[in-house]
Every structure is written in structure tokens, then in C-alpha cells.
Design goal:
The structure holds two protein chains of two kinds. Chain A has strands at 5-7, 10-13, 19-24, 31-38, 42-50, 53-57, 64-68, 74-78, 87-94, 104-105, 109-113. Chain A is an all-beta fold. In chain A, strands 2, 4, 5, 6, 9, 10 and 11 form a seven-stranded mixed sheet that branches. In chain A, strand 7 and strand 8 form a beta hairpin. Chain A is globular, with a radius of gyration of 13 Å. Chain B is an all-beta fold. Chain B is built from no helices and eleven strands. Chain B starts with a strand and ends with a strand. The chains are: A mainly beta, B mainly beta. The A-B interface holds A 4, 6, 33, 42-43, 45, 48, 55-56, 58, 88, 90, 92, 97-100, 102-108, 110 and B 33, 35, 40-45, 48, 88, 90, 92-93, 95-99, 101, 103-104.
Chain lengths: 114, 111
């Protein structure tokens, strides 16, 4: 059974640009969560989608947004990029709503903002 | 909100040695998850614990769910070079809304 797939793995953007990251969860999983990981802040929760609805949101500005499609694939978008947005963005899927099951992570998308 | 603390922050051990690390909280958790993250990769789930006092093994790894529900331990026996990485503990918050992650323990194995 394929794991969580994230694309792209690496990308470089400049300040002010926007970026879209994609995540395909494990087949049959309906919950997709996004995390930002930086050396200084550890794993920070961005948001969770379950059955195409945003169920929960972390403490990030409105420049960070996401969505989930009917096939459970999810995208997250960051607009007006800032240098501090450079991070590893991790997607995790779960068969049930986050907080009650096990999370399985993808390999991440490494974003560098210049 | 709920927080998880991990100790030690980092550790250097010789290949073949046993390793012990722990995760603590001031509040109760009903599930404990242990993850390992290799550099540049996503965390991989090692062990999941669901019951106070539970002791679960996965190869050379053993984890325990503390009786107080406020801590968990991870032990690695006979360490090898591929054990290098960051080990995270995690658990769902009391509202079942989110997972809380510890800051991680960075393990280095010296040959």
C-alpha cells in the first residue's frame, strides 16, 4: 500500500511569490494534516482537512491556506512568501479524524524562500 | 495548551550501547506515539501506545506508556548507526482535535 506522497520534494521561491504544495494520502485515509517544521520551532500544526472540510486550524496567518478534494488529496498554498516561510512542510494522513488515530507522514516538501 | 517535553535534547552514544529517552507532560495523554525522523525526511511511526502501563516492542525498540498517563519512555537496545535521527513523542490533545509533538531527542551513534 503506497504511503503518503508529497510533491514537489524541493522548491525555491523568492519573497512575494506564492507556492502550492500537494499531498496524496494513504489510500482510504480521509484526514490530511499539514505541519511546518523549522529547526527553531519544531513541528507546528497548520491545519487538518477531513472529508473536504477544514476541521481544525493552527495559529498561522491567513497567507497559509489549504483545501481537500473529493479523492482526499490535499493542497496547501502560501501566498506572499516571506523569508521565514522557509521550512520543511509535512503532510500526514490518518484513517480517522486527527487526534484519535495514528498519523502517517510523507517525506515533506522543502521550501526555500530567497 | 498541552505541551510535551523530551529529554535528553540530544545524546551521543557508542554503537552497541542501549539508549533510553523519555517524554513527559503536565497533563494526561490517552495515546502516545513515537516517531523517528531521518534528516530531510518525514517522521516515521515507530510505536503506538494506547493503555496506561502498556509495554510494546518493535524489534530493538521498546516503549512504555507511563502509569500516571503523563509520561512515556522509549528504549533502543544495541544501537546501530542507522538509529541516528530525531525521535519525537506525540499524543492527541484532550479535545481529540490535534496532535501535540515534543521537541525531539537527537540521537547520534558513534562507531
Amino acid at each position: 500500500k503506497a504511503g503518503v506522497t508529497q510533491t514537489p520534494r524541493y522548491l525555491i521561491k523568492t519573497r512575494g511569490q506564492q507556492v502550492t504544495l500537494s499531498c496524496s494520502p494513504i489510500s482510504g485515509h480521509r484526514s490530511v494534516s499539514w505541519y511546518q517544521q523549522t529547526p527553531g520551532q519544531g513541528l507546528q500544526f497548520l491545519f487538518e482537512y477531513f472529508s473536504e472540510t477544514q476541521r481544525n486550524k493552527g495559529n498561522f496567518p491567513g497567507r497559509f491556506s489549504g483545501r481537500q478534494f473529493s479523492n482526499s488529496r490535499s493542497e496547501m498554498n502560501v501566498s506572499t512568501l516571506e523569508l521565514g516561510d522557509s521550512a520543511l512542510y509535512l503532510c500526514a494522513s490518518s484513517s480517522i479524524q486527527q487526534g484519535t488515530g495514528e498519523l502517517f507522514f510523507g517525506e515533506g516538501s522543502r521550501l526555500t524562500v530567497l | 495548551g498541552q505541551q510535551l517535553n523530551q529529554s535528553p535534547q540530544s545524546m551521543f552514544i557508542q554503537e552497541g550501547e542501549d539508549v533510553s529517552m523519555n517524554c513527559t507532560s503536565s497533563s494526561i495523554f490517552n495515546t502516545w506515539l513515537w516517531y523517528k525522523q531521518d534528516p530531510g525526511e518525514g517522521p516515521v511511526l515507530l510505536i503506538a501506545l494506547y493503555k496506561a502501563g502498556e509495554l510494546t516492542s518493535n524489534g530493538r525498540l521498546t516503549a512504555q506508556f507511563g502509569i500516571t498517563r503523563k509520561d512515556s519512555f522509549l528504549n533502543i537496545s544495541a544501537s546501530i548507526p542507522s538509529d541516528v535521527g530525531i525521535y519525537f513523542c506525540a499524543g492527541p490533545d484532550n479535545y481529540g482535535q490535534n496532535f501535540v509533538f515534543g521537541p525531539g531527542t537527537r540521537l547520534s551513534v558513534l562507531p
